[in-house]
Amino acid sequence: MNFKLQTDYALRTLIYLGHAAGQASVQEVADAYGISRDHLFKVVQHLVRLGYVLSRPGRSGGIRLAQDAARINCGVVVAAFEGRNGLLPCVADENYCVLQPGCLLRGVLVKAENAMYAELERYTLADLVRATRAEGRPGMYQLLIRGRSISPAAAVAADEGTLPGDAAAATAAPGLRSGETD
User: Fold this and answer.
1) Which residue has the higher pLDDT, 169 or 109?
2) Is 150 a member of any domain?
């Protein structure tokens, strides 16, 4: 299963903003990832409508997270962009397929989709951007995009494994396990 391009850009934008811990321009994010500014702008508009990002127009404007990174659930973000429509049409509508009611594939696909969302829902944006030095891995403390370092505004807080605004939630949230990639 491939996520929509909008979902990919939404997650990347949130990671960028969470790591930067401040305001950035849409152009800055687009340049960092080497993606279309116009396409990213549409994704950012959707993130604004969903309440994840605040946008400030004008010369000194930009975008930033609208809420603490520990409150932004990855599974909820993905569902907002992908929808929970099922891996195949029969998942959402059991009467879609002529093989029903005896098809075992539908049940397998329902379980697979539920498992994917359950795993995504275990993580918040704070989990994706916090330093994971206790696990011997740098996490997003040293965010490199195309070989260029992106420095966080809150490097000291990230070094301590917390994010500004909700240190307790960032510490209590599940982190990446050894062997997983960022």
Assistant:
1) 109
2) yes
